């Protein structure tokens, strides 16, 4: 595995790489969720049409200051670099790019990418500027790595939707692949922030996913009863809120049922609209997010 | 010459093109200034290191609605497509990309690129949002065409500086080349808007360049006298304003002497700082811009 802290060696590596180059951007503190993204990337990098030549898998580790608010956990964000390096090696990553902030941002940087629709609600409401920071850094990483494909986890559903929108609107020639959320055996979505939970919070946190599962089941039953008609969202949403409210120590940041592409809140569940429940819950200062499709795939 | 109104054929052409691909983005209404940019692009596209294989020259013609304000001349902007096509053929362009607005912008587009330093003054002060529109479309065109090099005219100096800043800050892998302003025999900078001038305005408009030349000469003399010391900008600037004010029918939009990279207004001319005078003048509804270096190249 090649590692690079500077842009120059990445550009040089890219010139010699076979297609497809598949990219997994991360903030480090890698866990099995990231490992699953990397394994997906490795499968995508196997180009059958080029006579068995394999494309390359690039992982970046960059705790992007521009996507943290002034009161957020930038300094506390875990940075276990040696462990991250070992995981990348173990998973067969070809190139690990781990720039320092000064390599990415000039001190007088004045250009940013903004998304003014999908980024405003949900996590964006309590984290103003967060998704502009995400769009800007992802676009920069794409310009440096020039991947054919990039893999993002579905756990950060809003982030995935915003990046798909950016790629569509700016005509960025990168195929975006969303990978399903990896979970602990008890259902808790894998996250670098899980390790910051108190033991009590860690014990009850799986109830977030249980509430989402119950909601999906209820939505499916309601839609089966309604047939081709529409079902009101309000009853389903009320139940989900109730389930989250009773989790000890949990404080709801948001609970919404939205169109999974535009992130517009839905009033009705109807055939042909892909609905998704998105939640954010705080345990003390640790904020967890999760989401689940409410559209029957049967 | 290949022409394409859709993105797909451009992408397909790009995959087969040799490097370097050199790009000249325009809004059409092409004149000898554009022809000079295209000829510069052709020279840059000759890649001596690839055994005589020539890279490609791409021109785009797109009157970008996002860089016009609601009260600006979008609908009046000239669109002489047949003549533009003939000029591109004559100059040996390899690919002409001429998308309609709907090919570039989805109706629910929500992503933009903003520049928050260089874009605020000068033309940006009277055209809010203009340079964000420029950055967004240039970035999109770069994503579609994927040029190695792009050529912009120095006549639009602020635009050139903003694009250089965008390319630097977003790490866009395109080399930006600025090409000196082409002028009529009487010194008027070539512009698509010159044809909109009244005969009287056209007659006196060359005095803009004459004023800039006089300013450059005065600045050079003042600096020669001062030696390695600094020279105050105010006297030079006052003379330039005076020269522009007395042009019959001319109304000054701005006159500034700035650092030519950061566009920060300068108080002093000093060795090592590249100063440039930038002006915008209106004749009725027609707005002309021009600029000149105040730094002695001797």
Give an overview of the whole structure.
Two copies of one chain form a homodimer. By secondary structure, chain A is of the alpha/beta class. Chain A has two domains: 2-179, HUPs (Rossmann fold), CATH 3.40.50.620; 194-293, Pantoate-beta-alanine ligase, C-terminal domain (Pantoate--beta-alanine Ligase, Chain: A,domain 2, 2-Layer Sandwich), CATH 3.30.1300. The first copy, chain A, contains ten helices and twelve strands. In chain A, the strands form three sheets. In chain A, strands 1-4-3-2-6-7 form a six-stranded parallel sheet, with helices on both faces. The first copy, chain A, has a three-stranded antiparallel sheet with strand order 9-11-12, with helices on one face. In chain A, strands 8-10 form a two-stranded antiparallel sheet. The termini of chain A are far apart. Chain A binds chain B through residues 7, 11, 104-106, 108-118, 135-136, 139-140, 143-144, 146, 165-166, 168-173, 262, and chain B through 7, 11, 104-106, 108-118, 135-136, 139-140, 143-144, 146, 165-166, 168-173, 262.
Report on the biggest sheet of chain A: 6 strands, parallel
Please name the CATH topology of the largest domain in chain A: Rossmann fold
Query: Level of helix content of chain A?
Result: 25-40%
Oligomerization state: homodimer
Number of domains of chain A: 2
Shape of chain A: globular
Number of helices of chain A: 10
The tally of beta strands of chain A, per DSSP, is: 12
CATH architecture of the largest domain in chain A: 3-Layer(aba) Sandwich
The overall pLDDT average of chain A reads 94
